[in-house]
Amino acid sequence: MTSQxxxxxxxxxxxxxxxxxxxxHRETLALKCQxxxxxxxxxxxxxxxxxxxxxxxxxxxxxxxxxxxxxxAGDDQGPIYFSDEDPDGEFHLTExxxxxxxxxxxxxxxxxxxRNAARAALDDIAESxxxxxxxxxxxxxxxxxxxxxxxxxxxxxxxxxxRIDGATGH
Length: 170
Fold this sequence. Notes:
0% strand; DinB/YfiT-like; 55% helix; Four Helix Bundle (Hemerythrin (Met), subunit A); mainly alpha; MST-like; DinB family protein
């Protein structure tokens, strides 16, 4: 696991800038989870919300899979944690769910995301549609959406972590 974040360049070209900010946010979420045991990573520390740090990591594994596999590459492997019967399954954790497994799955999905994105130009249109409008987005749009998704959930992670042990920052 990372103990540092890569700071995005302030002068990079567009693609490097987008990839830099996405990696920055991926690393931020990992930092928010660093140093906690499985029990605290599973803890939904802001009732009545079911959000937990491990749940957020599992959610982001799903999001990486959906946007970079299913939508961008047209490779629908199906969901990892959720189902039609349990659409929020990534947040429904049990004692059997571990950080080691959640982190590995998340990193595996990030690796696939990087490979799939490397094969496309920013203006390339995805193979599949997803979302409210049912339109196939460009890779540029997917990068922008992913940065937004991580930024929003990193805000949640800030609050969860502070509630667990008082840690702030990163």
